[in-house]
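Dear support,

We are seeing what looks like truncated structure output for some complexes. This example has two components. We would appreciate it if you could run it in full and send us the complete token output so we can diff it against ours.
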Amino acid sequence: MPRYGPLILHVDVDAFFASVEQLLIPALRNRPVIVGSGCIASCSYEARRFGLRAGMPLRRAMQLCPSAVMLRGQYQIYRCFAEHIWQVCRRYATGLETYLDEAYGDATGSGDLYSTTPLMLGRRLQQDVRDEVRLPVSVGLGANRMLAKIASSHGKPGGAVWIRPGQEEAFLDTMPVRSLPGVGHKTADVLNDMSIKTVRDLRALSRKSLRTIFGRRGEVLYERCRGRDVQATRPAAAPKTISRETTFRRPTDDPAKIHGMLHYLLERAMRAARQIGLLAGAVELTVRYDDWKQYDARRTLGEPTDDDGEVFHAAVALFRRLHHRRVALRHIGIVLSNFCAKGSRATLFDTDARARRDELYGTIDTIRDRWGHAAVVTGRSIELLGRIQQNDYGFVLRTPCLTK
Amino acid sequence: MKIEQIGDPIRMLAEFAGGSAEPKRFGWNGRSYEIDRVNARWLDRQPDGYCLHYTVQVGDETYYLHFSSVEVQWWLDQVAMDG
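Here is the complete output from our reference environment:
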């Protein structure tokens, strides 16, 4: 039995994109730096002192901090740095579940392995990242995912925090209810109306009361305010959805450009699904107009498929339904869902045609794996040629982080 | 901050040792640039090889360089200048 019991690690890169930019260009160090296009994707701690936050429109950010240096972002570079950090983390935790700027892992027993306490383990990891990658990370350690995440948030920036077994409730006591995952604005408002402000206040409510107020979510809150979370890390779990979205550089009502972008986003999502052997069972489309009005619609496909053409056909039908105003479009996105594993469903008809199509997509994907997505441009994506700049990774979109 | 995209192949004097490379001096547009220091380095793994990327300091200017293992060629990607 490990000395410190189950131990989950959460690593969060502090002000990730801005920190990378400050590392790359020394002239940016100790200066307010904003990375983003349209709104802030990341900003340095120097910028945060002026009240800047992720998600804030750039115009507002420049009003608050006119001296800030604004950069569009180089997402391929950020991905390389993230991968280097996760490599370091894998020395200390197994089953790493990684996102763009944060990761969870199971560090149970690592303290015994390195003959140290979880807190020292976290500090050692931070030091390794600082020495090898030269970026600041916050580290949280606790008996479950929720505690690890809360601990790393508590330690930001640059801290390492371990919530010791048996100390969970004491640690959470004075925290506002909003700090618990799953408590958003609406839930917090309901609780605040009942004079419940801290996690300790929330703990005073019985399981039955919470269930009455919030339904099944109340049960989860009952556990979480006691520091209990049943969610384990999910290494390489099959995704429930695959999404690709982007904001146009300039709002557009050009049908060729819109259909081209729709096809491009869809073929990128479908390629990602094929890479992990999934067939899409449903497609959802979101459009946002220039006046920020947003509409979405979803369609279940006749049968799950990994054929770009079939899903594009469904997506165009959805688009015709949603695109009913004479206002330029600002943003477009697609979501694939209802996945099933390829080979799990037998096909009676057109087996030859399917085999030929599989071979075609297999070849296209192989070429793209070897030479980059831009090596082959198919279908309506051709409409984007000459309109949007390309690099090896494909068309250079305004929000490349969202196109993965 | 002004960032100028370049994308030119360059001649490089570099020290290769222990699986890594240390760029020292490069030639571009008929001029030689002595590297004061390496600011950052990162590895971009690709299906058929890898690229070693660097930002280096030459005076007040920051140069983005990379070495492509497939092309066995150094490239100057962009230059960042303050102001």
